[in-house]
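Quick look at the format.
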Amino acid sequence: MSTEPNSVADAEYDVTFIERGPERARFLIRGITPAFANGIRRAMVADVPTMAIDTVRVVENSSVMFDEQIGLRLGLVPLSTPPGEFEVGESVTLSLDVSGPDTAYSGDLVSAEDLVQPTVDGVPIIDLKEDQRLEVEAEAVLGRGESHAKHQGGIAVGYRHLQRVEEVGDLDAYDAEESHVLRGVIEEDGELIATEEFDHDLRERYPGKELAVEDVPDAFVFHVETDGSMTVEELVSEAIGSLEARAAELREAVQL
């Protein structure tokens, strides 16, 4: 576990990383309200723009799949989106030209912009047989998740209360010990423990004990995964920036 100060909000909030990677992270934020926690989640899902293929011009498609199905698959290919490099609505051209017998993958897409590339090379587009060919030109557009799910860089974004567990006493010798399943992160004497460490069952960690479990006020554990279009750190920072911009707009609008 590592604890780092929050550099976004005047050191009001305490942030602790439980798991941290470029595309997957879990962290605890103390000192925020449920409404603010939900605002962060919504901003990560709906406000942070990412690149996604929006229009496709089919040059040749002699496969067994309709053009519309090809377009749908291409639209779901995640593309790298460096924050701040493009404006919403700007586009980048990509092309794909594969002849059978072969399989066209996302990695076969050729981008006109080095900054915008498929984040996963192994997404299958179509299996081409002998004498079949797929050649397309596509336009990827920077858009927000509020307009279409293909622009959501956070593929799994959620939060839940941090829960505190305390031993109240010993179970009666004649009481049947039943499973007590929790999922997330618990706090025990100031230590943060992921519930998967004891298979999510408190009885595995506290055998024979009577327990008291309660939500820790204003403390929320976030779980964030991205599609690779940007890192978790970039996604969270961009979401916080979006909230700050909205707050500034509201502040200006209500000033007399």
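Next, a different chain entirely:
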Amino acid sequence: MKQIITILLATIILFGSCKKDDPSTGPEDTSKNLPVLTTTEVTTITSTTAKSGGNITNDGGEPVTSRGVCWSTTENPVVSGNKTTDGEGTGIFTSTITGLTAGTKYYVRAYATNRVGTSYGSQYSFTTTEGTGGTLTYNGYTYNIVTIGTQEWTVENLRTTVFNDGTAISKVTEAATWTNLKTSAYCAYNNDETIASSHGYLYNWFAVFTGKLAPATGGWRVPTDEDWTKLSNFIGSNAGTKLKAKSGWNSSGNGTDDYGFSALPGGYRNFAGHFSDLGNFGICWSSTEKDTDYAWSHAMYHNSAEVIRYGYNKGYGFSVRLVRDK
């Protein structure tokens, strides 16, 4: 009997040892984590849509089964609210956000989900545009209007050949005549009217100084230096890229035209009467004088992401946009 009990005890110990070594009952695996990711800055903003995305650099040890961006009008949006679904796995992805409300501030961040849970990238905020604001017909030409923040801008560069009182603006084609001119003048780039039909005319600052380039009614004006600065500050970083048209710029310098401003590189005419940089530069006058010989302008370049403020000789020929308060 004693021998039987000894055998039973040995058997119990043996099976107990085998069960303890079973990996299915071992300690919990703590090597699995949430995904690691970043959010892509928001671009291509319209009144109802925008683009963002993310980059998942680590899946946390478990496959990423869902990814995209989520957004809200309050901070720190989560996937239980508005979201996109943009595939699975790690790497870079792009998200198109739709169904937005015009003139509204939103917050967005990327998300990634694996078996452990959901993690989020950094947060960005953006404001949808107000959309187009109709058209302006002035001196025989029709201009589209876009609302950006609290300002309304003409989408096309000015093409008027007369002032708002009907007086003709002097059209100067010869370089020798343009040189050191101190009175109002305009021209087409390279004296080519086909370029003017798409890029508008070039005006010296003396035409701007008259105060008669914009319509006499409706609140329109040639923008001041402050108007241009207000526009750039509203858009923020990379304002030039966001304002430039999606085509027409040299050397891969096209913009994203996030706000429908559609800035074109109309080039310029210097104070000596020479034309330059069509396709490279888009420079617009402000109505603000810097000093006796110079006035402020705001420029976009094919190789720059910003809107750059410069004081130029008043004899230069630059493009002109019109603005009014909303």
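The chain has two domains: 36-127, 132-325.

See the schema section for token definitions.
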